Amino acid sequence: MMLVKPLLSSSIELDIYSDDDESTVFVDENLVSQALMNLCINARDAMNDSGKLSIRLASKTVEIDELQSCRDVCELQPGNYVVISVEDEGCGMSDDVADRVFEPFYSTKEVGHGTGLGLSMVFGAAEEHGGCVRVKSKLGEGSTFELYLPVASNEVESDEGVDEVEDAPITGGDETVLVAEDDASVRDITIRSLESAGYNVVAAVDGQDAITKIDQNLNAIQFALIDVVMPYKNGREVAEHLAKVRPDMQVLFCSGYDVQSNTSTWEKTSPKLQVLSKPIDPSSLLRTIREMLDSNTGQLIA
């Protein structure tokens, strides 16, 4: 569970269990990985970085009578599902909060400690796969979130004709990386992932802060990971500043949309950019950063 461990403090006990069923589900790996990370971040914050977090992977058959009796199993069809559950020992939620927890921008966290989009993204990921997410919670006794993913109707009987590519082993490093990201949850995931791989991190909360941090750590920073859309200064403006003060700096952009086609942020004459699309799987992020550092082919906006 290398996706989850970097998100948790050492005072949180992580318990993982999977049943022996070998059901097949077809999923967008990045989307489901991000959904799982968001659930774990939510659980971690509910426990104030202390307690037990349990992750379960199991198969379940949903019957028609369950659909009729459970108001919190939404838009599910009777059938077989793989269920990923995340359970915490945190503060729990009232029924009123539980009813609204998947609404976009709804958050019970303090200002600056979340966007209110994490759980709505989990809900969206479930619907994207024809599944659903349900929550069980009691105030003062913790919460359990269950992500339902439908089992594939036709099992894959043969691997013939299917190209299988072994993932290259993930290696870290000791370089110093600038992380410029205004979303606190995404920034937290990124920092923990990089630090767990041995990197040093200089974090910036918006574009102007990124420029300030660059100037303060001009000779220390060896790589820049920059969000495209940020307050005060966007990713291009940060990269342009880097091109002036550190023309040797490698830059990797991250974005939730197609930056190449957005002429309000990027000119049509811009060179081909190195961009990772959100949601970003930490494994893909670490692999891309290492490959760019080793090949020295990062992209600068000149």
In short:
It contains eight helices and ten strands. With 302 residues, it is α/β, with parallel strands linked by helices. The strands form two sheets. Strands 1-2-3-5-4 form a five-stranded mixed sheet. It has a five-stranded parallel sheet with strand order 7-6-8-9-10, sandwiched between helices.
Tell me the radius of gyration. Answer: 21 Å
CATH topology of the largest domain: Heat Shock Protein 90
Report the sheet with the most strands, covering strand number, pairing sense and barrel closure: 5 strands, mixed
Question: Considering the protein shown, what is the CATH homologous superfamily of the largest domain?
Answer: Histidine kinase-like ATPase, C-terminal domain
The fraction of residues in strands falls at: 15-25%
Indicate the topology.
Blueprint: E1 12-18, H1 29-46, E2 51-62, H2 64-69, E3 79-87, H3 95-100, H4 118-128, E4 132-137, E5 143-150, E6 176-180, H5 184-196, E7 200-204, H6 207-216, E8 223-227, H7 235-245, E9 250-255, E10 275-277, H8 282-295
Parallel strand pairs: 1-2, 6-7, 6-8, 8-9, 9-10
Antiparallel strand pairs: 2-3, 3-5, 4-5
Tell me what the structure shows.
- With 302 residues, the chain is of the alpha/beta class.
- It has 2 domains: 5-150, Histidine kinase-like ATPase, C-terminal domain (Heat Shock Protein 90, 2-Layer Sandwich), CATH 3.30.565; 176-295, 3-Layer(aba) Sandwich (Rossmann fold), CATH 3.40.50.2300.
- Helix content is 29%, strand content 22%.
- The protein contains 8 helices and 10 strands.
- The chain has helices at residues 29-46, 64-69, 95-100, 118-128, 184-196, 207-216, 235-245, 282-295, and strands at residues 12-18, 51-62, 79-87, 132-137, 143-150, 176-180, 200-204, 223-227, 250-255, 275-277.
- It has a 5-stranded mixed beta sheet with strand order 1-2-3-5-4. A 5-stranded parallel beta sheet has the order 7-6-8-9-10, sandwiched between helices.
- β8 (223-227), α7 (235-245) and β9 (250-255) form a beta-alpha-beta unit.
- It is elongated.
- It starts with 11 loop residues before the first strand and ends in a 7-residue tail after the last helix.
- It is an enzyme of class 2 (transferase).
- The modification 4-aspartylphosphate is found at residue 227.
- GO terms for molecular function: ATP binding; protein histidine kinase activity.
- Residues 1-153 form the Histidine kinase domain.
- It comes from Rhodopirellula sallentina SM41.
